Structures are given as structure tokens and as C-alpha cells.
């Protein structure tokens, strides 16, 4: 869920067909791949053509893939004042048509909107819609508010699968691809799925179960999302909205020892989901932060909350990660970076790119980390929050395990195992 929501131009206005989508023709889906399917989870702002094409490829390939598009995280057409205008509409129906058209452009034999939203929850238990899902070889969940997926595809307090979600879960286990962007990635999480929050408020106030009208308050759903992804917590829009702090605080508060914090236009691709062969690969224009809290220690004192001994890694296009061994492997073409710069790490007084700072710079946290591993001038670097009273200081420190990789011999592209601590500033 992004605080910077943008309208998507739809090529077709599909509101009139909200419940008129019939089951797809009985074209047989491509043979499932053994050993579980594939997740492709994007941190929002999806533009990279390679990611779209990878979804099509994992769904059976050019001319064979059949993609079901789910957009229940969007508002229904009745709540969209621009529903009649294909140039500005942003609702479940027109967003579904938009993505379906894109997947056809990128080689899918067919792509169809799956007609479920918060005003048509009954469709999630429709046998006709289940038949539509069963004819698909892949699925894409669009962005918006992940809690709308909970209320439209899961059964209330019982948190049990609707018929449509059960069918998608079975297809994933049998080898299909399930992809999602922003809220569509968040909903893949298991227990303690994040529902909102900003980093500074999270560090200051901690987390609480629930969904809150105050978008700055760190909330989570203890029952979780759909539970497709089990290797750790998920967060999205990380670099652009400075969410490293909220991801760290939520993990610490809820007892998780790992977070995958995805940047925009960047995916983590999980192959062989749920099996011993499960592996992760990064694909896209920015990166994925991996926060390792196995050795983390938290304290709450008179000045506020603190944590130390978190390990921070930042993986970029082509890098792989083994969730069982906690080890990263750089992509081909990246070589070890030997720190050679002598300039100090630039000062950073807005480490979490505060929404309140009109001059906030995106990718602030990862920028400081990259600068540190590329210089010989210092072993540690500090950065502070834009907010004060109390402010927080982030300290990044190179360790004997820290590694960095480059493509030009000078600039850090990827890095692993920076020791990270967060502490309140003295008043």
C-alpha cells in the first residue's frame, strides 16, 4: 500500500462486465512444473518490461500463458469518481482491464480480469469464477489496499480460503505462477502482514494489531495475508518511502527474524515455492533489502526504543538468495568491490525519506550503506531521522563478514552483512 497512489490509464472501461465474465473456455492449461510454482513479488511502481515478460514466461510462455488478473485491492467502480473515463479511472474493473491488456501485449495468449472486489465478495465463492481460475496458468494481484484482499478473498474472522483463493493456492502448488505488485505482493505474506505505517512513527510508537485510518501508524494483521510466502516478512515501496525503519520495528515487535523489503519496480522471484528447493532471485531496476534479526537485541529505555546487531543486505538485479542457508550470491557480471574511495560518507539527516520533508531523497538508507562499503575513510557511518523529539540515529558498521559487489570497479551495487543499530538521540 503506497501513500503515493497514482491513477492508471485503462485501455478498456470494464465496469459493465463486473459479474458478466464467464468461465474461460476449457482450453487446457500448460502442464504444471514439478516441485511447486513461482512467486514474483514486486515492491510497487511496476514498469520493468522484463518483470512482465518473466510472469508470462513462468505462466507457460509466449502464446501459451493464460493470466488471471485480480484487482480487489482497488476500490470498486461505484467509489471511483472517474469510473466513466478510461484515461483517469482507477478502480477494480478498469485496473483489471489495464493489466489484462498489458499481459496480452507482452505475449500472453489470454489475460482476463477475475471479477471480485469488496462489493462483490460472493463472486469469490462462485463456481463459474472458480472455473475461470482453473483455466489459467498464472495470476497477477494488483495494488491498492491489501486489506481489501483479506475482506474479499478470505472468510471473515475464520480467515479461511474462499473457493477462488483455494483454487489459486492449488494452482500455485501444482506449478503455476502467482505475481503481485505493492498490495498484491504484501498479501502473499504469512502472519503479521503489515497494514500501514511510516518509519519514524514506527520507531517512536511501535506496532499494534489492526488496520488504522492514521496511515502513519504501524499496523499489522496477526492472522496474516494469504501465506504464499514463508521465508520472512514482506514490505514494499521501501526505498522511495523510507520503510526500512518500519520493517525493522514490525519484525522485532512480532518475533520475526527476517524481512524482505522490496523497492519499487523490483521483484523477488521465488521458485519452487514451499519446497526444499526454494530459491530467490532479484529482478528489476532497484533492489531488495534483507534484514536479518537473528542476533538482534532490543531495549526500551527512558529515551525510547532501540535495537542493535541487525544485519542489513541489499541485493540487486540477478542476485540470488538461499533462504535456508541465509546466503546471497551475486549475479554474473558483478565482481567483488575493494573499497578504494577516500571521501567520507555524505551526511544524512533524513535516513527514512520522511513524508514531512519537502526535500526528501529516495533510497536514502541504501545510499548511505552503499557509500560506506565503497570508502576506506571510515568503518561506520551514522544517519539520523528528519523528525526530532525524539530523533533516532542509525549506525551502519562494516564487519568481517561484510561483502560488496560492483559492475564498474568503484560503485557498490550490492552488499551483504552490514551491522545495523537504531537508537534514540539524546534530548
TrEMBL record:
Q: Which GO terms describe its biological process?
A: proteolysis
- One GO MF term: serine-type peptidase activity
What Pfam families does its record include? Peptidase_S51
Keywords, sorted A to Z: Hydrolase, Protease, Serine protease, Signal
Question: Keyword Hydrolase: yes or no?
Answer: yes
Concerning InterPro entries, the annotation shows: Class_I_gatase-like (IPR029062), Peptidase_S51 (IPR005320)
- Source organism, top-level taxon: Bacteria
Signal sequence coordinates? 1-26
Tell me if Membrane is a UniProt keyword of this record: no
Similarity section:
Belongs to the peptidase S51 family.
Under what name is this protein listed?
Answer: Cyanophycinase
To which species is this protein native?
A: Kitasatospora indigofera
Amino acid at each position: 500500500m503506497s501513500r503515493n497512489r497514482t491513477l492508471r490509464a485503462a485501455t478498456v472501461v470494464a465496469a459493465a462486465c463486473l459479474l458478466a465474465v464467464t468461465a474461460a473456455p476449457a482450453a487446457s492449461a500448460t502442464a504444471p512444473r514439478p516441485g511447486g510454482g513461482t512467486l514474483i513479488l514486486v515492491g510497487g511502481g511496476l514498469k520493468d518490461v522484463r518483470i512482465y515478460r518473466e510472469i508470462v514466461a513462468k505462466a507457460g510462455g509466449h502464446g501459451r500463458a493464460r493470466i488471471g488478473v485480480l484487482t480487489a485491492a482497488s476500490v470498486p467502480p461505484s467509489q471511483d469518481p472517474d469510473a466513466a473515463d478510461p484515461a483517469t479511472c482507477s478502480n477494480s474493473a478498469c485496473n483489471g482491464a489495464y493489466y489484462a491488456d498489458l499481459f496480452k501485449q507482452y505475449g500472453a495468449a489470454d489475460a482476463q480480469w477475475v471479477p471480485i472486489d469488496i462489493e462483490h465478495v460472493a463472486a469469490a465463492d462462485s463456481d463459474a469464477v472458480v472455473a475461470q481460475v482453473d483455466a489459467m496458468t498464472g495470476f497477477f494481484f494488483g495494488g491498492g489496499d491489501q486489506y481489501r484482499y483479506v475482506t474479499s478473498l478470505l472468510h471473515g474472522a475464520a480467515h479461511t480460503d474462499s473457493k477462488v483463493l483455494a483454487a489459486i493456492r492449488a494452482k500455485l502448488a501444482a506449478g503455476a505462477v502467482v505475481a503481485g505488485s505493492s498490495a498484491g505482493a504484501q498479501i502473499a505474506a504469512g502472519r503479521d502482514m503489515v497494514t500501514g505505517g511510516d518509519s519514524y512513527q514506527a520507531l517512536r510508537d511501535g506496532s499494534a494489531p489492526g488496520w488504522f485510518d492514521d496511515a502513519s501508524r504501524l499496523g499489522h494483521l496477526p492472522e496474516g495475508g494469504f501465506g504464499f510466502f514463508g521465508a520472512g516478512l514482506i514490505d514494499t515501496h521501501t526505498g522511495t518511502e523510507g520503510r526500512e525503519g518500519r520493517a525493522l520495528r514490525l519484525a522485532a515487535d512480532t518475533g520475526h527474524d527476517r524481512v524482505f523489503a522490496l523497492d519499487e519496480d523490483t521483484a523477488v522471484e521465488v521458485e519452487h515455492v514451499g519446497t526444499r528447493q526454494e530459491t530467490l532471485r532479484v529482478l528489476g531496476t532497484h533492489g531488495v533489502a534483507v534484514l536479518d534479526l537473528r542476533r538482534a537485541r532490543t531495549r526500551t529505555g527512558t529515551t525510547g526504543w532501540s535495537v542493535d546487531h541487525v544485519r542489513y543486505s541489499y541485493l540487486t538485479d540477478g542476485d540470488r538468495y538461499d533462504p535456508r542457508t541465509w546466503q546471497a550470491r551475486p549475479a554474473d557480471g558483478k565482481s567483488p568491490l575493494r573499497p578504494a574511495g577516500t571521501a567520507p560518507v555524505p551526511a544524512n539527516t533524513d535516513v527514512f525519506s520522511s513524508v514531512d520533508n519537502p526535500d526528501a531523497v529516495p533510497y536514502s538508507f541504501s545510499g548511505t550503506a552503499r557509500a560506506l562499503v565503497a570508502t576506506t575513510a571510515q568503518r561506520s557511518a551514522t544517519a539520523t531521522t528528519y523528525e526530532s523529539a525524539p530523533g533516532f540515529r542509525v549506525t551502519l558498521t562494516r564487519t568481517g563478514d561484510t561483502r560488496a559487489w560492483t559492475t564498474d570497479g568503484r560503485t557498490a551495487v550490492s552488499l551483504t552483512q552490514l551491522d545495523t543499530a537504531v537508537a534514540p538521540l539524546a534530548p
